[in-house]
Amino acid sequence: MKEEIKSAVYDFVRASYEGRTQDMVQALYPDDVDQFYQTMAWLMKAMEPFGEAEDFRTRLFPESNNLDEILALPPKVFMAEYLQRVMRRMDEKTLKKALATFEITQCEVEDNVAQVAYRLEVEAYGETMAMENQSMLTYEKGKWYSHLNPGRNAMVNYYQQKIEDYERRKSMDNIRPKPYEPDDLEPFALYGYKGPNEEIVIEPRFRHAGYFVDGLAPVQIFRKYGYLNMKGELAITPFFDKARDFSEGRAAVGKRDEELEMKWDYINRKGEQLTHAAYDEVSDFQEGRATVGKRDEGEIMHWQVLNLEGKVITQQTYDQIRAYYDGRAAVRKGDFWGFIDLEGQEVIPLKFEYVENFEFGTATVTLAIPGGYEDLEIDLNGEIVS
Predict the structure, then answer these.
(1) Which residues does 209 contact at the CB level (< 8 Å), separation at least 6?
(2) Angle 52-60/30-47 helices, nearest 10 degrees?
(3) Predicted pLDDT of residue 40
(4) Which of 3, 29, 109, 261 is most enclosed, with most CB atoms within 10 A?
(5) What is the arrangement of strands in the sheet containing 290-295, beginning at the earlier edge strand?
């Protein structure tokens, strides 16, 4: 019996990668085909008022003229057309190698139902990857039929939940008997938070909402920004005119000055202000460091580096400072670039026309030479490695 099951799974996998959708449909459990057709028919009709059905039609049934034409297809034809668009084919040489590695790793049979796990190795992008999958089969009328992967219902469940949520919110509309004048109504958007399954966790009630980092997220309720915890409570009272996501336990917050210019400082997770410098430009923290800039009277920006305590660690200002990578930050003064370390010290002199950020201990730099330019690879100490 297990050899018959292995053969059924093997044939189905081969047909799917060869794009033989008619054979796939014949190998599928008939009730699954009918149920899939009914579910997709419901979905397309339900999404038609929202304009989504037409996009579905043109992507998956491009030769059809309208939705009714698709819904008139017999279930098996519908299924074959659908699979023709969504299945990923494999070239003959790659498929032959992959099928040679096909093996059943687990097979449990109870009555007329089999639960099967299988694997095969596939070459892609110059590497060999092991693909592991599961399948359920039912024995009926002398044949083992494969069932559709339950994951195919995910899209249907997603849209169904969206439609139900829309209708629920629509039912809460406050439309009075006497119609409003067009100028009386203004659009607005409120933000909330949803979970991994699209469930609403924190109800929409914020004019703006950022991402949760370190358990806190910036939110705007009226005019001011504060920070929300994951229980939906305000952990840091709204006080700021702007607020960014936390990074490495620090967040940049902005307040407008008397001239309505936004000035930035940093706070910690307790809401305690770490700097009182009113910077014009700031970055998020990376590798324990942040870059900050102030404009002079000529509107020229001068950049420095802060540590996690909010202390300036650079000995001078620069015209440009990038984020840290591998403990080095690229800095520019005038026309030349170099690098500083985590202590703000210039460890690689400013002598390059251009530099890229460090990655895995090396960086590409451009040096001016007689008659042109030369690209070099340097290490963290500035030594040439290639």
Answers:
(1) 191, 192, 193, 217, 218, 219, 220, 228
(2) 130
(3) 87
(4) 29
(5) 281-282, 290-295, 301-306
